[in-house]
Amino acid sequence: xxxxxxxxxLFVLVVIGLIVLFxxxxxxxxxxxxxxGTDKNKAEWISKRIVKELKLTKNQQIELDRxxxxxxxxKAEFKVDHDEIKNAVLSQVKSDxxxxxxxxxxxxxxxxxxxxxxxxxxxxxxxxxxxxxxEQRLKLxxxxxxxxxxxxx
Length: 153
Prior knowledge:
By secondary structure, the protein is mainly α. The protein has a domain at 77-153: Four Helix Bundle (Hemerythrin (Met), subunit A) (Up-down Bundle), CATH 1.20.120. The protein is 82% helix and 0% strand. The protein contains 5 helices and no strands. The protein has helices at 2-23, 39-54, 58-94, 100-131, 134-151. The protein starts with a helix and ends with a helix.
């Protein structure tokens, strides 16, 4: 009887642990959760953190908001393209045979678009980098290293 009860408790704890693990909100309660909220809300949360942590001036905040808006607009374009890929692959899965030429063509087009988006984002990063003082750049680098060591190890 005790063995059966222990097994049930262990099973429930494992299920709860898996739910927490895959929910994406297990890292820091009360912090911004990556699965909840819109892209715009996430960008707003990140920019507020940047303003606070780096103590940006009003002019720097204006530039950050401009860059954030341009990135958000570009990301909206890219998201539509992502759905196109998903739908194309899904239709191939449902079909009797895979049209490799069609998929290769689609992915070649997407690779060109990705190169364009990559160049755009690098340009926006350079614009953001220019508005920071050397001290702010150093502080940002330290924050990024800390974040990476806590969340990506």
